[in-house]
Design brief:
The complex is a heterodimer of chains A (about 290) and B (about 290).
Chain A: E1 2-6, H1 12-21, E2 25-29, H2 33-41, E3 45-46, H3 50-56, E4 59-62, H4 67-80, E5 86-89, H5 95-107, E6 111-114, E7 117-118, H6 120-126, E8 129-134, H7 140-148, E9 151-158, H8 162-190, H9 195-203, H10 210-221, H11 230-247, H12 252-266, H13 277-285
Parallel strand pairs in A: 1-2, 1-4, 2-3, 4-5, 5-6, 8-9
Antiparallel strand pairs in A: 7-8
Chain B: E1 2-6, H1 12-21, E2 25-28, E3 44-46, H2 50-56, E4 59-62, H3 67-75, H4 80-83, E5 89-92, H5 98-110, E6 114-117, E7 120-121, H6 123-128, E8 132-137, H7 140-150, E9 154-161, H8 165-193, H9 198-206, H10 213-223, H11 233-250, H12 255-269, H13 280-287
Parallel strand pairs in B: 1-2, 1-4, 2-3, 4-5, 5-6, 8-9
Antiparallel strand pairs in B: 7-8
Helix pairs in contact in B: 3-5, 8-10, 8-11, 8-12, 8-13, 9-10, 11-12
Classes of the chains: A alpha/beta (about 290), B alpha/beta (about 290).
C-alpha cells in the first residue's frame, strides 16, 4: 500500500518502521528534514510538502499534537488527496474537530478516519497500541492490514468523531487513576507506611490496574522521567473538559483532576511524567 | 489450632468455614443466634460471650462493620480483653480507621494480647473462593504465627508494616477503587451523551493504558445495568469517610478522593446506598438528564 505519514516523533517513528517492515511503500514529510533522516535510511521516501505527499498516496496518516496542527494539515492534504483516498489521523483532538474534518473531506470524496491510540511510546515500539477509530464501517476491511501492523486491540467505535470520544474516555479513566495512585501514595507516605509494599498488595486485589502497576511503580521509586509528558495529558484534559462544557455533561472527577494538572503545569513539571501529580500533593503539604 | 471467629456475616461466614475445613477447631459467638446455624455441621464450639471465645482460643478473628464494633468486642463488658490469656492473638479483618487500629493494638498490648490488623479486598466472591487479598499490619513474629491461617483465606497475603499499616493499605485500595468506579461511570456517561456505543468504548479501552479490573468487571456490570451488590455504596461511603478522616488528621490534600466521597454521599442520600457502588453511573445520569 502507498502510505504517507506526517508526524514522525516518539510515537510516529516506530509506527512508520513497522509499516516499512510489513512491506508498505512509505512517504514522509516533516518540518525539519533531519528528523526524517533515520526513516529515509530505512527506505522511506521524502516529500516536499503535505500536499505533494497527499497526491502520491492512497492512505495518509497524521500523528501530531493538537487541534490546530491537525486542522492546518487537513486543509493542505485535502488539496492533494485523490477521491477514494483515506486520511487517518492518529492524533488526540476534539471529537467536534474530527467530525468537521470528516464532513469537509467527504465533500471531496475523501474518507476521514479518527484513530487515536493508547499505549504510549512503549506500545508504539512494541506494536501493541490500542486503536479506537471512528469512520465508515465499509473502510474496516481496507484498513485492517494497516492497523494490524501497529496495534493489537483495534476497535471501530462508530462514525467520524467516535474514536476521539473513546480516547477522551480513555484519558479520563487513565489520568483519574494516576491521580488516585498519587493520593494513595501520599496517604501511605504521610502515615509512615512503605508505598512499594502497599502497591504490591493492591496489585493482587480489586484495585489492580495498568496505571497502578506502571505509574504506581514510578511513584514508589520517585522516578519522574517521562513516559508520556504531563503537558500532553493536560492538553487532552483541556480538550475533553471543553467538550463536556459544550455538551453540559457533568464530570466532577475529571474536573478535579484537571485542576491538579493545572497546578502541575504551573509548578513547571509539564515536560516530566504525569506521576508528578504526587509532587503536586506533596508541595501543597510542604512547610 | 483453637480459632475464635466473631462476625459471621456475608464475608465472615465463608472465611470461618474455610478455617474449619482446614482442620481448625472453631470457637464462635454471635449477636444473633441465627448466624450460627451454618456451623452446626462442623467442629465448632458455641459460646455465650466474646470473653468465653477468648478464653478458649489461640487466635481470635473479628470481621465486623466499623471501629466502634471492634472496640466494643475487644473492651466492652465480657469483651475479648476480659477473657484473654497472655499470648492470645487478636486479628481484626474489618475495615476501620488506621489510627483506631493503632489504639486498639496498644490497649491490647498493655494486657499482653498481640494484635494484627488485616483488612481484605476481594468482596464476598473472594471470601467464598478463598482468593482474598489480605493486607496486614503487626509484628513480624506475630504475623508468621497467623500466616498459615491467612493462606486458607486468601491468595495474596502481604505484611505491610507495623500495626495500622494494613488499614493504611486498605485505605489506599479504597481510594483507587472508589475513584476508579467514579471515573469509569463518568467516562461511560460522557460517551453515552455523545451518542457513542459505550460497550465499544469499554472494549477499546481494555486494550490500552486505561485497563483496570474495575473497567473490566464493574464496567461490564454498568453495561448490563446490574446494580445488585457486590459491594454496597454505603460501605464505600464509609471507607472513603475513613480516608478523609485520615486526610484531616494528617493535613493531607486528597482532591479526587474528596470529590469521590461527595458523590458517594449523594448516592446514599438519594436512596442508592443498598445498590452496588457502580450505581455511581445512575447518579451521574440523574444529574445530567432533564426532569
Amino acid at each position: 500500500m502507498k502510505i504517507g505519514f506526517i508526524g514522525i516523533g516518539g510515537m510516529g517513528r516506530p509506527m512508520v518502521e513497522h509499516l516499512l517492515v510489513a512491506g508498505h511503500c512509505l512517504t514522509v514529510w516533516s518540518r525539519r528534514l533531519e528528523s526524517a533522516q533515520p526513516l529515509l535510511a530505512l527506505g522511506a521516501n521524502w516529500s516536499e510538502s503535505p500536499t505533494a505527499l497527499a497526491a502520491q498516496c492512497e492512505v495518509v496518516c497524521t500523528n501530531v499534537t493538537g487541534d490546530a496542527d491537525v486542522a492546518a494539515l487537513a486543509d493542505q492534504l485535502r488539496e492533494g488527496l485523490a477521491a477514494d483516498s483515506v486520511h487517518i489521523d492518529f492524533s488526540t483532538i476534539s471529537p467536534a474537530l474530527a467530525r468537521l474534518i470528516g464532513e469537509r473531506h467527504a465533500e471531496h470524496g475523501v474518507d476521514f478516519v479518527d484513530a487515536p491510540v493508547s499505549g504510549g511510546t512503549a506500545g508504539a515500539r512494541a506494536a501493541t497500541l490500542a486503536i479506537m477509530w471512528g469512520g465508515k464501517a465499509a473502510l474496516a476491511e481496507r484498513l485492517a492490514p494497516l492497523f494490524a501492523c501497529l496495534g493489537k486491540t483495534v476497535v471501530r467505535v462508530g462514525e467520524s468523531g467516535a474514536g476521539q470520544v473513546a480516547k477522551a474516555c480513555n484519558q479520563m479513566v487513565m489520568v483519574a487513576a494516576i491521580q488516585a495512585c498519587a493520593e494513595a501514595a501520599h496517604l501511605a507516605k504521610a502515615a509512615g507506611v512503605d508505598f512499594a509494599k502497599v502497591q504490591a498488595a493492591m496489585l493482587g486485589g480489586s484495585a489492580n490496574s495498568r496505571v497502578l502497576d506502571f505509574f504506581g511503580g514510578k511513584m514508589a521509586r520517585a522516578d519522574f522521567a517521562a513516559g508520556v509528558e504531563a503537558r500532553l495529558h493536560h492538553k487532552d484534559f483541556v480538550t475533553l473538559m471543553a467538550a463536556a462544557t459544550r455538551g453540559a455533561i457533568p464530570l466532577p472527577i475529571a474536573g478535579t483532576v484537571m485542576q491538579q494538572l493545572d497546578v502541575l503545569m504551573a509548578a513547571g513539571f509539564g515536560t516530566q511524567d504525569t506521576s508528578r501529580l504526587l509532587s503536586v500533593l506533596e508541595q501543597a503539604a510542604r512547610h | 489450632m483453637n480459632v475464635g471467629f466473631i462476625g459471621l456475616g456475608l464475608m465472615g461466614r465463608p472465611m470461618a468455614l474455610h478455617l474449619a475445613k482446614a482442620g481448625h477447631s472453631l470457637h464462635l459467638w454471635a449477636r444473633r443466634p441465627a448466624s450460627l446455624e451454618p456451623f452446626k455441621a462442623v467442629d465448632a464450639h458455641l459460646h455465650l460471650s466474646p470473653a468465653e471465645v477468648a478464653r478458649h482460643a489461640d487466635v481470635v478473628f473479628t470481621m465486623v462493620a466499623d471501629a466502634p464494633d471492634v472496640e466494643a468486642l475487644a473492651f466492652g463488658e465480657d469483651g475479648l480483653a476480659s477473657g484473654a490469656r497472655p499470648g492470645l492473638i487478636v486479628v481484626d479483618m474489618s475495615t476501620i480507621n488506621p489510627n483506631a487500629a493503632r489504639q486498639i493494638g496498644a490497649e491490647l498490648a498493655a494486657k499482653g494480647v498481640a494484635f494484627i490488623d488485616a483488612p481484605v479486598s476481594g468482596g464476598e466472591t473472594g471470601a467464598i473462593n478463598a482468593s482474598l487479598t489480605i493486607m496486614a499490619g503487626g509484628k513480624p513474629e506475630v504475623f508468621e504465627q497467623v500466616k498459615p491461617l491467612f493462606e486458607k483465606l486468601g491468595k495474596s497475603v502481604t505484611l505491610i508494616g507495623d500495626v495500622g499499616a494494613g488499614q493504611v493499605a486498605k485505605a489506599c485500595n479504597q481510594i483507587l477503587t472508589g475513584v476508579g468506579v467514579m471515573a469509569v461511570a463518568e467516562a461511560f456517561n460522557f460517551a453515552a451523551k455523545n451518542d457513542v456505543d459505550v460497550s465499544k468504548v469499554r472494549e477499546a479501552l481494555l486494550g490500552g493504558f486505561a485497563y483496570s479490573r474495575i473497567l473490566e468487571n464493574h464496567g461490564q456490570r454498568m453495561l448490563d445495568r446490574n446494580f445488585k451488590p457486590g459491594f454496597k455504596a454505603w460501605m464505600h461511603q464509609k471507607d472513603l469517610r475513613i480516608v478523609m478522616e485520615e486526610a484531616h488528621r494528617l493535613g493531607l490534600m486528597l482532591p479526587a478522593s474528596a470529590a469521590t466521597a461527595q458523590l458517594f454521599n449523594a448516592m446514599v442520600g438519594s436512596g442508592m446506598g443498598e445498590d452496588d457502588s457502580i450505581a455511581a453511573l445512575k447518579l451521574l445520569e440523574k444529574i445530567s438528564t432533564p426532569e
